Amino acid sequence: QLQFVESGGGLVQPGGSLRLSCTASGRTLDYYAIGWFRQAPGKEREVVSCIASSDGYTYYSASVKGRFTISKDNAKNTVYLQMNNLKPEDTAVYYCAAEITRDGCPKDFGSWGQGTHVTVSS
């Protein structure tokens, strides 16, 4: 069974940076697309970014494109989300999720982490 441990969240000032990590256990991530999602208080969960299993494809939402970078280290079974130039509107609980895919990013993800809190405030 695939399980995740997310880490790297915290409190940061506007303009600052954080790197979120999503480390998997139970299965290798070699065949999984990994997505990062976030849910702000009172709002619906939204996709932030996704990285495909093997073809190098990445996706970013318009709100984070140019500021966030997703990467995958198969040797460490870990996916990272580097977040730069953070804004107060980035405040949310961030979740990683996985789904087996041949290429690209799926619409739905079956395995989810517990989330890590990110607060951007001065």
Tell me the total number of β-strands. Answer: 11
Low-pLDDT segments, ≥5 res: none
User: What characterizes the major β-sheet?
Assistant: 7 strands, mixed
Judging from the principal axes of the Cα atoms, what is the shape? globular
Assembly annotation:
single chain
Helical fraction equals under 10%
Query: What's the rounded overall pLDDT mean?
Result: 95
Distance from first to last alpha carbon: 40 Å
Kindly estimate the percentage of residues that lie in beta strands according to DSSP. Answer: over 45%
Computed over alpha carbons, the radius of gyration is 13 Å
Number of helices: 0
General description of the model:
By secondary structure, the protein is mostly beta strands. Helix content is 0%, strand content 50%. The protein has strands at residues 3-7, 10-12, 18-25, 32-39, 46-51, 58-60, 68-73, 78-83, 92-100, 111-112, 116-120. Strands 2, 4, 5, 6, 9, 10 and 11 form a seven-stranded mixed beta sheet that branches. The protein is globular, with a radius of gyration of 13 Å. 33% of the residues are buried.
